[in-house]
Specification:
MarR family transcriptional regulator; transcription; 151 residues; Arc Repressor Mutant, subunit A; DNA-binding
Length: 151
């Protein structure tokens, strides 16, 4: 048994970390259930949602924006292409660059899914006042930027 004293600040930091982790797990778990009811996983949905809002994009940029590795983005794009939800094309100026865009069936799926997804998000954030949401955004950005600087 370790008798090390934990300072009040350390205890508060640990509580904050646990609260952040539990909140993230709960919110993302609820959203995952809604997404999975349409036969997609959250990463697949993230790719489709990005293309739905931004249009045709280089696959590398998709991976950067939704925070997955280049190997993973290739795998996810392959799966979505097999499902008929997106299509790819090579860049004529640089054959190493591959663009992805929604296929008509992917566009139709997102036309059905996104309003439902947005409503699920609205329900999850309903307990927070507008000022609390803005404060949360600033706090999480500050924490994230600090964490990025630590590496």
């Amino acid at each position: 048994m370790n008798d090390r004293e934990v300072s009040a600040e350390e205890q508060l930091n640990l509580k904050a970390l646990i609260a952040l982790g539990r909140s993230h797990r709960s919110v993302m778990g609820r959203l995952a259930l809604q997404i999975e009811s349409h036969g997609l996983n959250p990463t697949e949905f993230g790719v489709l949602e990005f293309l739905y809002h931004k249009g045709e994009q280089p696959t590398q940029k998709i991976g950067e924006k939704i925070l997955i590795t280049s190997g993973s983005i290739t795998y996810v794009v392959d799966k979505l292409e097999r499902k008929g939800y997106l299509k790819r094309r090579r860049c004529e100026q640089d054959r190493r660059v591959i663009y992805a865009s929604l296929a008509p069936s992917g566009e139709a799926l997102m036309d059905r899914m996104f309003p439902e997804h947005a409503e699920a998000i609205n329900r999850l954030f309903a307990p927070l006042e507008e000022a609390e949401k803005r404060q949360m955004i600033e706090i999480l950005k500050k924490l994230g930027m600090h964490a990025e600087q630590q590496s």
